Amino acid sequence: MARLVGNLIVSAMLTWMGASAIKIRMEEIINLKENDGTLRPQNHGPTMVNVSLVLHSLVIDDKRQVLELSGDLHQEWDNPGLEFTVSAVALLGNSIPLTGISGRHVLEQLWRPDLTSAQEVRPGFGNHYSDFVRLSREGHVTWTQRVHYSFPCPLDLSGYPMGIHSCTLKLHSLGYQADELQPSWYGDAAVDYGGMTISHGYKLRNIRTSAKTVVTVHRTKRQLRVEMEIETASGWALKHTVIPMTATVTTAYLAFFINIRGVGARMITCMMSMVTAAIFHESAYSIVPPAAYTMALEVFTGTCLTFIFIATVESVVVDVLSHLPTKGRRSTPSPHTSFALEPDLTDERPGTRGQVAALWLDRCFRVLYPAAFLAFNAVYWVLYN
Asked: How many CB atoms lie within 10 A of CB 157?
């Protein structure tokens, strides 16, 4: 009772004299001399920490299959040893903000949780100048720090460049066990990703949070998880791979309409299509992550190259058939140009069976070639999309 009366008297004196005339050290306000920052708060049990995360950017490295995640990590807990006196409340209000720049010497003396990523590809050390701590009069501590996590994410590349990938960020204490530190997500919407920027070609479908107890090296720890569903946006691949490869297959298809005597024109058309498709194939695979299984992109580009190869072989077969000698007579070359479209049987001598077979093969491929390619696309896009 006497202490309370003394504090009220001091508070009244401070109000009367004016806060500008009083100089008081922060260590005295929050009793840092009596509070040992190396020990966690003694709350008759594990220290409960409420955790929330605000995501700013998500960078996806396809080739290394690594996610780079940055944001703000918020942690709240109670530390009864940091309660204010009545005089401090009169001076500073109900809470004290401490930044990593002006209040760094005070922050270094406060106990803080040691939550870190469970799987780090490139461990990074936080910048203490970006930390922010707010202390309330009841000893409630709110700590905000800028974080950057780099963790592996095995992507499901069977449908690449399409498909949905599931990646999980795991946070746990570096040294405290479950009976000493109990982190938990603060509310249902503990992870805010509304204003997040994500790598081009991807979009975030959903985020789920969970917590579980895990055992690592015979130690029980409380682990927080952020499960992210990342969907691949196939628009880029459609413009830079599918459309060019389809165009090369269509160009090779035009060789079936060139006169059977124009083997040079037919071969040039097919070979140019083959070279162009090979260039697009290599440019597409320069950014494709390695995988031990067959990807959707490999199926499409490989099939397109196969169709162009078939068109090339068909041109060679047609040329061989058109030059087969006829028994007892010699074929007379037609005066028409070799680039003439829609070759007709009337251009050939009756009885040249090789030329008739070549024309028949050409006309069959004019129908079967596009029909097979359209059927392949129908099955491909239904299967992989």
From this structure: 23
Ordered per-residue pLDDT tens for the chain, 385 residues: 554 444 444 454 444 444 444 455 666 666 666 677 778 887 778 999 999 999 999 998 877 888 999 999 999 998 887 776 655 555 556 777 888 776 777 777 788 898 988 888 776 655 556 788 888 888 889 999 999 999 998 888 787 777 888 999 999 998 899 988 999 999 878 999 988 999 887 888 899 999 999 887 778 999 999 999 998 876 767 777 888 999 999 999 999 998 888 888 899 999 999 999 988 888 777 777 777 778 888 899 999 999 999 999 999 998 888 877 755 555 455 544 444 444 444 444 444 777 888 889 999 999 999 999 999 999 998 888 7
The 3-state DSSP class for residue 368 equals helix
Element (H, E) at 267: helix 263-285
Cα(271)–Cα(287) distance, integer angstroms: 26
- My answer on whether omega of the bond before 154 falls inside 30° of 0, hence cis, is no
Given a contact cutoff of 8 angstroms between Cβ atoms, the answer to whether 343 and 359 are in contact is: yes
CA atoms of 247 and 113, how far apart (whole Å):
59
Residues 6+ apart with CB under 8 A from 226: 53, 168, 169, 171, 191, 207, 208, 209
Structure token digits, residue 25: 């050290």
> Distance (Å, rounded) from C-alpha 345 to C-alpha 347?
5
Helix (H, G, I), strand (E, B) or coil at 137: coil
Task: Determine contact, residues 183/171, Cβ cutoff 8 Å.
Answer: yes
Helical pair 243-253 and 263-285, crossing angle rounded to 10 deg: 170
Question: In the chain, what are the helix, strand and coil shares in percent, each to the nearest 5?
Answer: 40, 30, 35
For residues 273 and 283, give the distance between their C-alpha atoms in angstroms, rounded to a whole number: 15
Structure tokens at 1: 């009772």
124 vs 73: CA distance, rounded Å: 15
Helix axes 296-322, 263-285, angle to 10 degrees: 170
Phi, psi of 164 (to 5 degrees): -120, 135
Tokens of 328: 């007892």
Give kind and range of the element (H or E) at residue 212. strand 202-216
Q: What is the pTM of this model?
A: 0.71
Nearest-angstrom CA–CA distance, 13 and 21: 11
